[in-house]
Amino acid sequence: MKNITIALLCTASVVLATAPAHAESPFTTGPFVGLSLGGVGLMPRTIGLVNTGESEHDNGAAKLTAGYWFSPHWGFAASYVDMGEFTQTYNSGSFSGSVRSAGLGLLGRVAINDRWSLIGKVTLTHNRSKQTSVTGDPIQFSELRGESTQAVWPGLEINYKVNEAASVFFEAESRGEAAEKLDTAYGGIGLRWQF
Questions:
Q1: How far apart are CA 81 and CA 40, in angstroms?
Q2: What are phi and psi of 11, to 5 degrees?
Q3: d(CA 89, CA 53)
Q4: How is domain 2-194 classified at the CATH fold level?
Q5: Count of alpha carbons within 13 Å of 53, Cβ hemisphere only?
Q6: How far apart are CA 92 and CA 15, in angstroms?
């Protein structure tokens, strides 16, 4: 994960260094792909057991996005987030699981100036929490595994247009429930390429 982060930052530096002094309107249309790296919030809610600390999860997450701007202000995007693995320990055992999230979102874009824009998102997500290991009685953790589909908002992104093809963005969004008692969120920095 560290090598991917370094490669992404190096690519962003090269793109920023070679950008023209003035870009055209940020309201371009057409297909795009994006990759971002960041962190997740995996937040188990109470399941009737006494937890013995905060949930632990690996530090990195990656999100892949493909979409289309069908007008200067409106678009859609399909996304996939690998949220990694987490462990929650309780007084009667522990639950470890992995979370994946797929989504289809509606995007709304507003220009701040000729390079910066603000993008809002409403996303229909399908999330899955899969048990990887457990100590104690597995039945007591049934509300932490499963899958869920729902519409979630808000999602927010600040986008900097480097040139006609590339932009750098910062994003934060809820991804909804991954199981009956497990909420998720994602935040990251990424690069987007428009065709």
A1: 10
A2: -60, -45
A3: 7
A4: Porin (2.40.160)
A5: 10
A6: 52
CB distance 107 to 76 below 8 Å = yes
DSSP string covering 44-60: EPP-SS-B-S--EE-S-
Name the band, by pLDDT with cuts 50, 70 and 90, for residue 86.
Answer: confident
Evaluate the CA torsion angle 191, 57, 130, 149 in order and state its sign.
Answer: negative
Dist CA 41 CA 77 (whole Å): 22
What's this model's pTM, rounded to 2 decimal places? 0.79
Segments making up each domain of the chain, as ranges? 2-194
DSSP 162-181: -SSSEEEEEEEEEEEEEETT
pLDDT of residue 53: 73
**Cα separation of 66 and 33, whole Å?**
4
Torsion angle, CA of 31/60/9/152, rounded to 10 degrees?
30
| pLDDT tens sequence across 125-159 | 999 999 888 888 888 888 888 999 999 988 999 99
Environment class of 59 (CB within 10 Å of its CB; exposed 0-12, middle 13-18, buried 19+): exposed
